[in-house]
Design brief:
CATH architecture of the largest domain: 3-Layer(aba) Sandwich
Strand order of the largest sheet: 2-1-6-5-8
Bound molecules: adenine
Number of strands: 10
Structural class: alpha/beta
Order of helices and strands: EHHEEEHEHEEHEHHEEHH
Radius of gyration: 21 Å
Largest sheet: 5 strands, parallel
Helix content: 25-40%
Number of domains: 2
């Protein structure tokens, strides 16, 4: 999967791309990531990328031309999603991540300042996504969230494919509790069943725990209210 990011802050991605699962995905060539500096497409001598909003009000707006030039530079075909991260977007969930996995190329516009000029949204953006009901100062952070979620699902990135499939949210359920050695930690023991070696019973226990936790924390998932 090729992911191209239009950003004003390419350097924000450096340590992110150098670490952990995303780095493994890059090294295995399961994903390919390029950052395109929107400022390279600014047309005046001050390399201006933002301006005051028409109609007044606080905050600066990202100008449309450098973003549009960046998109044209990428020479995107018809079926490539152009994602814009915004708190106004549809909430990202695992189902959406799985849907996006079906693309071999995606483009992400990282917003900054108050907003981007709405004509970019109207003309180019195919999907608006939010990562939660709060406001971030940049789309860069949100796009890292998506890149991480996509990277770990690419074939060959996580050793044990079951590991991804048993994660929270994969089956409209939150995950169950996990334990590792030692058996006793600070006077608390690992649940007996996990030491029994009876994998059928362990599966049942884990499923029951998942349902119990989901009921308590996100009951709406059990009513299939999650999109
Ligand atoms: N940009 C600013 N806030 C955001 C959010 N909650 N989700 C995605 N992009 C954002």
């Amino acid at each position: 999967m090729r992911i191209e990011l239009l950003t004003l802050f390419p350097e924000m991605f450096n340590s992110f791309l150098d670490s952990s699962i995303v780095n493994i995905a890059l090294k295995k060539k399961a994903i390919e990531i390029s950052t395109i500096d929107i400022r390279d497409f600014a047309f005046n001598k001050h390399r201006q990328v933002d301006d005051y909003p028409y109609g007044g009000g606080a905050g600066m707006i990202m100008k449309p031309e450098p973003i549009a030039e960046g998109i044209k530079f990428l020479d995107i075909g018809k079926n490539v999603p152009i994602i814009y991260f915004t708190p106004q977007g549809k909430l990202l969930n695992q189902k959406k991540v799985r849907q996006l996995m079906e693309n071999d190329r995606i483009v992400i516009i990282c917003g900054h300042y108050k907003e981007i000029d709405n004509r970019i949204r109207d003309k180019y953006v195919t999907e608006e996504i939010s990562i939660g009901d709060y406001v971030l100062s940049s789309g860069e952070l949100a796009s890292m969230v998506l890149i991480d979620a996509l990277s770990r699902l690419q074939e060959g990135v996580i050793n044990d494919i079951e590991s991804a499939e048993s994660d929270s949210h994969e089956k409209n359920l939150l995950g169950c509790p996990y334990y590792t050695r030692p058996v006793n930690f600070d006077g608390i023991s690992v649940p007996e069943i996990l030491l029994s070696g009876n994998h059928a019973k362990i599966d049942i226990w884990r499923n029951e725990k998942s349902i119990e936790i989901t009921k308590k924390i996100r009951p709406e998932f059990l009513n299939n209210e999650k999109e």
